[in-house]
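Example for tutorial group B:
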């Protein structure tokens, strides 16, 4: 008898198979028990009929506790009434691991309770669906960049430099020196782009941000492409193609997860249409002011109500271009004709999910960059390797960073970024 994963049920209809599974829920009458099972790949129903299995197995099935681990044996059948489409007619049951008083019951629990039990909460069908969407976004990311001529480069996690400002660094001892956990691999990816042309990274980044919002994590994963000989407009095209590709692949490959999450496919489909709208920072400020946001002046950074308003003015993700130099990092390319703005773009997701991409063209002039490093109060000795990139064949280049968890949150249509990563690190939470 073959052991299978229930996700492959289609290939085994009519066969008797064995599956390792846990009991998610159950109900029974005098003659028949319905087990809601999960084997890690999907949730499915197991049916135990007393007259077929005998009294002993039937009593065992009837009295199973939630999260008992089992080896079930039975025949795979089509089941047109369930979302999943297949069930197993159980002929044999073996308990592998008992479970008593499982803390997460089918009733409602508060978020703090669920977060304290994240190691168990991950087993629930909604969390399972979100992780499938996350996995698909990761898979499609590799596919997109591989097929577009990028090579994956892994920047270090322990670093001596701070690309995104020094206020939210995690500092640690590195023998007798100080080191920081990476906020962004960008500076290293710029070195890599000068070595390999088109590169991308995918790795964890850390920000000691004292923000307690539904968009902020302390530890999050970023995809950071960097492209040599490329200007902003071409980079925006890569960005919109990449994001549309992610949406299309989630639509194509995450049917079951989208059903579980109740995500409207028609809404997602709109995000595969290119191009995405572009609006300048200047026009965005004007749009906000005209619509009653009198708290925004030219020069201010946008908060989430502002981003949400701008996003709602369009039906797709939107690029906001060329922010004030004063609110952006030191490495961005200055505008050719305006002193006060830099060549950059943020992509804002629709439906109030906020900024999912930050990117820019990079300053390529050695003297200008050195000046900026000093003006930002950074130690130029720590950046001498970075400045080298402007000494030996400096070329126009551009790159961006997509926040994985915000993208997962958005495409899953869930409320809060904390459910988009298996074990979220939040302000005041590092357990479990
Ligand atoms: O806009 P950010 O700070 O850009 C950079 O780090 C650049 N160095 C990227 C580059 O050009 N290579 O961050 C990029 C993205 C944001 O748009 C957002 O999606 C995500 O990272 N992000 C966060 N996600 C969750 N929690 C946080 N605290 C985040 N901070 C940024
Ligand atoms: Mg940003």
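The residue assignment follows.
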């Amino acid at each position: 008898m073959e052991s299978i994963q229930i996700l492959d049920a289609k290939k085994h209809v009519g066969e008797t198979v064995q599956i390792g599974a846990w009991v998610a829920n159950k109900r029974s009458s005098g003659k028949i028990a319905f087990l809601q099972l999960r084997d890690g790949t999907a949730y499915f129903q197991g049916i135990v009929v007393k007259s077929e299995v005998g009294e002993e197995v039937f009593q065992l099935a009837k009295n199973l506790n939630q999260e008992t681990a089992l080896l079930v044996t039975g025949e795979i059948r089509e089941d047109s009434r369930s979302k999943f489409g297949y069930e197993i007619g159980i002929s044999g049951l073996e308990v592998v691991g008992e479970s008593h008083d499982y803390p997460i019951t089918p009733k409602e629990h508060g978020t703090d309770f669920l977060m304290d039990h994240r190691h168990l909460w991950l087993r629930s069908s909604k969390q399972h669906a979100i992780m499938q969407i996350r996995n698909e976004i990761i898979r499609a990311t590799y596919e997109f960049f591989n097929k577009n001529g990028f090579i994956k480069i892994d920047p270090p996690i322990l670093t001596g430099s701070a690309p995104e400002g020094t206020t939210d660094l995690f500092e640690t001892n590195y023998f007798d020196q100080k080191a920081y956990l990476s906020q962004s691999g960008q500076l290293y990816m710029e070195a890599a782009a000068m070595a390999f042309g088109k590169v991308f990274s995918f790795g964890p980044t850390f920000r000691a941000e004292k923000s307690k919002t539904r968009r902020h994590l302390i530890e999050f994963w970023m995809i950071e492409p960097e492209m040599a000989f490329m200007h902003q407009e071409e980079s925006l095209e890569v960005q919109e193609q990449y994001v549309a590709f992610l949406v299309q692949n989630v639509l194509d490959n995450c049917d079951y997860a989208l059903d579980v999450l109740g995500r409207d496919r028609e809404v997602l489909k709109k995000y595969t249409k290119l191009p995405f709208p572009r609006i300048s920072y200047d026009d965005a400020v004007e749009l906000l002011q005209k619509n009653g946001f009198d708290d925004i002046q030219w020069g201010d950074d946008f908060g989430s109500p502002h981003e949400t308003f701008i996003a709602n003015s369009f039906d797709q993700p939107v690029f906001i271009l060329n922010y004030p130099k004063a609110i952006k990092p030191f490495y961005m390319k200055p505008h050719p004709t305006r002193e006060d703005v830099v060549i950059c773009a943020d992509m804002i997701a629709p439906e109030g999910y906020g900024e999912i991409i930050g990117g820019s063209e990079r300053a390529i002039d050695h003297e200008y960059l050195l000046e900026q490093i000093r003006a930002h109060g950074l130690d130029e000795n720590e950046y001498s390797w970075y400045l080298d990139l402007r000494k030996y064949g400096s070329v126009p280049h551009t790159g961006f960073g997509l926040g994985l968890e915000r993208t997962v949150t958005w495409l899953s249509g869930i409320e809060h970024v904390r459910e988009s990563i298996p074990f979220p690190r939040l302000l005041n939470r590092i357990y479990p």
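The mean pLDDT is 96. Compare this with the pattern of hydrophobic and polar residues in the output above.
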